[in-house]
Design goal:
This protein is mainly α and about 300 residues long. It has helices at about 1-10, 10-35, 40-60, 75-100, 100-110, 110-125, 130-150, 155-180, 185-215, 220-250, 250-270, 280-305.
Length: about 300
């Protein structure tokens, strides 16, 4: 009861929780669109998500619910690198999900956490406590074991995931960095990332997928329409919670939240799409990663509850 009360009264924990729930949900809606409905056009799905995000941002600003600066050349220059990481993260993530099952996708993406630790030290000068690092190492080792035990291993999909880990880590770190540089709020960062990424996404979609999306026959399916709509709406919510979580918490906490939700994704993914063969190695890896995730969660909870000024 005290833990629930603490989470509700602590904005950072609440936002991290909302990010985790949204991230789990959107993964399965994306998977349904890409594989269940055979809409094998991940760039087009990315474009749809960007359009919906910009639509929500503009409408909410028009009605006075949110505020952010109008398009500004100086801000565009400052946020170009973040926008590049944004589009690479989204495109590579959807491409990887289309080629791999959910448990493997979730397990291998845990590698991004170690990259965040190294990136925080190099770019932000932050040193992660030893017990946190140990829990992350065990989490990643468990993920690698789980991936190794997946007999449906896809090389191309795994390369996409590895690339996605690096750009995701860079994205999480640069959000905190660019927020301080530009003084933009969450909605401003979202607006600039989406609008700067859209031209390249339109070009990429036209070059690689135009013929396919022109001939796709499932647009009239209500199930497809619902999943595509939910995917696009939740992409807006997910990006919002990622920005907000990275602002209120450290990039490492945001990344770890993503890894913890991956456990639930993995468990659900074992049964939802029927494309996973459970093996001893897969089971061992998932158990090890789960224990490490709970250990890390306890460490962060304990640190927050007993937070005191650090000396020296």
């Amino acid at each position: 009861m005290n833990a629930i009360k603490f989470i509700l009264n602590n904005k950072g924990f609440f936002v991290a929780f909302a990010y985790g729930v949204t991230s789990v949900s959107i993964t399965f809606f994306n998977k349904a669109v890409l594989n269940y409905y055979n809409f094998n056009y991940s760039n087009s799905l990315t474009l749809g998500q960007m359009i919906f995000s910009l639509f929500f941002l503009v409408i909410m600003k028009q009605f006075g619910y949110i505020s952010y600066p109008d398009l500004n050349i100086d801000l565009c220059k400052k946020l170009l690198s973040l926008s590049l990481l944004f589009i690479l993260m989204v495109v590579s993530g959807l491409a990887a999900l289309a080629k791999t099952n959910v448990p493997l996708f979730s397990a291998l993406r845990r590698l991004s956490t170690l990259i965040v630790i190294a990136g925080e030290r190099a770019l932000l000068g932050k040193v992660t406590p030893a017990n946190e690092t140990q829990s992350v190492v065990i989490m990643v080792l468990g993920a690698l074991i789980a991936g190794w035990g997946d007999v449906t291993f896809d090389v191309v999909g795994s390369i996409y995931i590895l690339f996605n880990c690096f750009v995701t880590a860079g994205y999480l770190i640069f959000i905190a960095k660019k927020t301080k540089e530009t003084q933009l709020n969450t909605f401003g960062l979202m607006f600039y990332c989406n609008i700067l990424s859209m031209p390249a996404t339109i070009l990429l979609t036209y070059v690689t997928e135009w013929e396919g999306i022109s001939s796709y026959e499932g647009y009239s399916d209500l199930g497809f329409q619902f999943c595509f709509l939910m995917s696009s709406v939740q992409a807006f919510l997910l990006n919002y919670f990622i920005f907000l979580c990275s602002t209120l918490n450290s990039p490492l906490t945001t990344s770890i939240t993503g890894q913890i939700k991956s456990i639930l994704q993995t468990i659900l993914g074992l049964f939802m799409f029927g494309d996973v063969i459970i093996t001893p190695l897969l089971s061992i890896g998932l158990i090890a990663s789960t224990i490490a995730s709970f250990w890390y969660t306890y460490i962060k909870y304990d640190q927050t509850v007993n937070k005191k000024p650090t000396q020296g």
